[in-house]
Amino acid sequence: MGFWLPLLLFFASGYGILALESTNVSIIVKGSVSVAETNEHFVCATIDWWPPEKCNYNQCPWGQSSVLNLDINHPFLAAAIQAFNTLRIRVGGSLQDQVVYGVKGLEHPCLPFEKTVGSLFGFSKGCLSMDRWDEINSFFNRTGAIVTFGINALYGRHHVKNHLWGGAWDSSNARDFIEYTISKGYKVDSWEFGNELSGRGIGARVEAEQYGRDLIHFRAILDELYEKSHTQHLLLAPGGFFDEQWYSKLLQVSGSGIVNAMTHHIYNLGPGTDPHLAKKILDPQYLNRIADIYKNVQSTIKNHGPWALAWVGEAGGVPNNGGRLVSNTFIDSFWYLDQLGMASTYNTKAYCRQTLIGGHYGLLDRDTFIPNPDYYSALLWHRLMGKKVLSVDFNGHPHLRAYTHCRKQKEGISLLLINLSNNTEYNVAIKNDINANLNTGVHNDKGHSFTDGLKWAVSWIGTTSTAVQTREEYHLTAENGNLQSKTMLLNGTPLQLTEGGGIPPLTPAHVPVASPLIVAPLSIVFVTLPNFEAEACV
What we know:
538 residues; Glyco_hydro_79; signal; beta-glucuronidase activity; hydrolase; Heparanase-like protein 1 isoform X1
């Protein structure tokens, strides 16, 4: 029975799974044109600045995971990044606007953050020494990371009232730091200006007009410093929560050619103390709410700054450290992968997960560096889902989420299917819109026999060859049916590091293309169809 035996046990032991129902679903893939496109390095993860003393809800989950104290020589950490071949890492977070850079000319000792009553976020300013920056860049170079670095955008400003900060940005410390970085040959792909200073701000805010003028100044600095360098230098902003009026004004003031990408943050699940977090993640209507943010970001850029791209610069679902026994367990992959799918359909070019390590939402465990379930979800997306996004058409099944892309660097397509239902398995027929009108249409029959299911699956068409074909399937489930398990099963096998600490092979099940494609309750399935005809993918 292969990996189906663990799935049957999963149904029997279940996480609130009721009597099993089976439903036929037809998914029509529109492969003639792509509807959106991501970046080659769409999957991204962050490294934050929080020290061990960062606590919320009587929990202090950061430990030694910040830019300043992370054990960058841990072999599991390097292996986790190298498995992506190239993983974008965004260095930034709430404390980045209190970071000073320990370059020549700094008039005070280079000291780490300290708890300070009355200071922004309850911490003093902290310093990044150039020795530590050298070590970090050596690590980035060894692992092939693509680096986005968040610059302190409060430097030189003064507190006006409430959260408002005024005055022009003092660029002197940042300029010296970037000049040092270039002189050492360190490859920073993009510089992000500020963190959560937009709109009402988080802790602090800056008016859009002043921010726009500062961005023009920052762009001039970058262009000057990189004039003799052949490396690319993107400018990102503002790294905050989307506020339509503020973002529009920023684009109008800064003007064309200044900002390469508008970055915004996603924390749509509410606080980590919410006892209904798991329920929210499995509620399709709740998951759909955030789509309005993506739509509005897209329209704002189109109307006021068509030269800029959209990025999610930081997203952890649950703010303030993530949700304990939620963000670091299997159930979070329903939210995370749905976010990757949804963001990509709105032309989002990069999606930076908070965090690579640190807090409850780390892709890696803070203490052991062992991957949490979302790490493997991110890796599968990165390896299977190409840049071009295809439209899919199916109705009447809100608990089944479907996203389709061209296959990554190979012919065919890749699908992501997410089943949020705890009592319905979906027997999926995948069709090509070129030929879909030749079929009998979309069915929604329950209680069908195995023979009916086989006939249903055989209705799949739209391949480039009449030869015997197979598809690749990656079924993701929770160990022992426990959605809050930290162990993810791939085709029934636990995903665990190898004896040498390496990332395990993510081996698919090779299935005859005419056999049933079954998406079990509370499971996630990646499917690749190498011979599917899609003109957009040629």
